Amino acid sequence: MSELATLSHITHDNLVHLIGGCVDGPRRMLVYEYMDNGNLAQNLEEIHPRIVHRDIKPTNILLDLDLRPKISDFGLSKFFPDDITHITTRVAGTLGYLAPEYAISGHLTRKLDVYSFGALLLEIVSGKKVVDFDQTLGEQYFLVERAWKLYKSDRLVQLVDPVLMKDDGNVEEAERFLRVALLCLQQKSILRPTMSAALKMMNATTASDEGGGVVVEIMEPGLIGDFMAVKIGRRQQDNKQQSSTTTTTTEGAASVL
């Protein structure tokens, strides 16, 4: 019912309209406007800074009959009062779209959706999934890591979907979008642009316009493998501590007996 509560407070052309809802015993249903087309991406500028969606991904961006994108699925969204910069909450969302500070500690800010948007933008331009399995290498494939490696070696254009490579204008625009995506994916949330700034950079016509006349340095993004390792390391440490406590208690009990 959290989705019903959220959508009852907001209306916008880029949000899927909630028509009604019903609670019948254990069954809960929400009725939305019918969306004629598939999934794509659209900006989050209109719902920020009041709301953090927490689950921005391709399947939650729908297209209507006129191909207008609309954001859906507000079941995980959080309201952000103007005087609040962050909250700590239970981690929820989809692997590959979660910002590292949130995935590791539940530290939620408005920049979480910016990170998710960056991952989504990489998918759109590259035509690849943000997390996939590489049959050739026999291991998981992380799109953010791939983009960062190509950027560092000045080969970012190799990530562009071949379908877009047929037009030189498309290639230039696609590269710009990839750079904006990497900015949105910065490891430190303070370095990520606001959605408003990201949109301005995407609409820029020159390199100087892209940064608002200022050179914007792209730093290392938040890599999935890194913060997964942190969480695994913490879990192992917790297990060791728990095991140590159990052993001590058992030994103490044995000595008493």
TrEMBL record:
Entry keyword Signal: yes
PROSITE patterns, alphabetized: PROTEIN_KINASE_DOM (PS50011), PROTEIN_KINASE_ST (PS00108)
Membrane topology note: Single-pass type I membrane protein
Residues annotated as domain Protein kinase: 1-183
Biological source species: Linum tenue
Signal peptide boundaries: none
Lineage: Eukaryota, Viridiplantae, Streptophyta, Embryophyta, Tracheophyta
Record bears the keyword Transferase: yes
Any one Pfam family match given in the protein's UniProt record, by short name: Pkinase
Keywords tagged on the record: ATP-binding, Glycoprotein, Kinase, Membrane, Nucleotide-binding, Receptor, Serine/threonine-protein kinase, Signal, Transferase, Transmembrane, Transmembrane helix
UniProt name for this protein: non-specific serine/threonine protein kinase
GO terms under cellular component: membrane
Gene3D superfamilies: Phosphorylase Kinase, domain 1, Transferase(Phosphotransferase) domain 1
